[in-house]
Amino acid sequence: MDRGKDLAEGSSCGGDPAAATTTPSRYESQKRRDWNTFGQFLRNQRPPVALSECNSGHVLEFLRYLDQFGKTKVHLQGCIFYGQPEPPAPCTCPLRQAWGSLDALIGRLRAAYEENGGPPETNPFASSAIRIYLREVKESQAKARGIPYKKKKRGGSGKPDEESTTSSIPFS
């Protein structure tokens, strides 16, 4: 399935006009890559975890694992730049996945789980533990950068969050 991988990564179709009409959208390609990455993560666990046995704990482990590939500087409470949106100098605080990236990733995985036959009532990506984790990440990153997140009112302004970004997982 190298051709599918090529399409997902934006490679050309090799001039086949029929292939151009079946090229998945960027969202669908990213969702498939994310789903494959999560499946690989489960297979690499010791012992390997079957998708049917997956729970919110595995999803949380996966999100923490992804932090090592993050590009967002998150200042620790002891850092002199804690709470400053634009620090004047570098520091040794860790790079993490941005909240918006994790939120988008969970949305894609939640959809992929059900598209791949998982029952909605047992969807580990839709659990309250995941919602709580994402809220905590959002709040801690906002505090570390000195940016207050304001709760959106239902049916609000329709403006996207400044922090909402697309997820970028560096492997498939």
Automatic annotation (TrEMBL):
<comment type="similarity">
    <text>Belongs to the plant homeotic and developmental regulators ALOG protein family.</text>
</comment>
<feature type="domain" description="ALOG">
    <location>
        <begin position="26"/>
        <end position="153"/>
    </location>
</feature>
<feature type="region of interest" description="Disordered">
    <location>
        <begin position="1"/>
        <end position="31"/>
    </location>
</feature>
<dbReference type="GO" id="GO:0005634">
    <property type="term" value="C:nucleus"/>
</dbReference>
<keyword id="KW-0539">Nucleus</keyword>
<dbReference type="InterPro" id="IPR006936">
    <property type="entry name" value="ALOG_dom"/>
</dbReference>
<keyword id="KW-0804">Transcription</keyword>
<dbReference type="Pfam" id="PF04852">
    <property type="entry name" value="ALOG_dom"/>
</dbReference>
<dbReference type="GO" id="GO:0009299">
    <property type="term" value="P:mRNA transcription"/>
</dbReference>
<keyword id="KW-0805">Transcription regulation</keyword>
<dbReference type="GO" id="GO:0003677">
    <property type="term" value="F:DNA binding"/>
</dbReference>
<dbReference type="GO" id="GO:0009416">
    <property type="term" value="P:response to light stimulus"/>
</dbReference>
<dbReference type="InterPro" id="IPR040222">
    <property type="entry name" value="ALOG"/>
</dbReference>
<protein>
    <submittedName>
        <fullName>Protein LIGHT-DEPENDENT SHORT HYPOCOTYLS 10</fullName>
    </submittedName>
</protein>
<feature type="region of interest" description="Disordered">
    <location>
        <begin position="141"/>
        <end position="172"/>
    </location>
</feature>
<keyword id="KW-0217">Developmental protein</keyword>
<keyword id="KW-0238">DNA-binding</keyword>
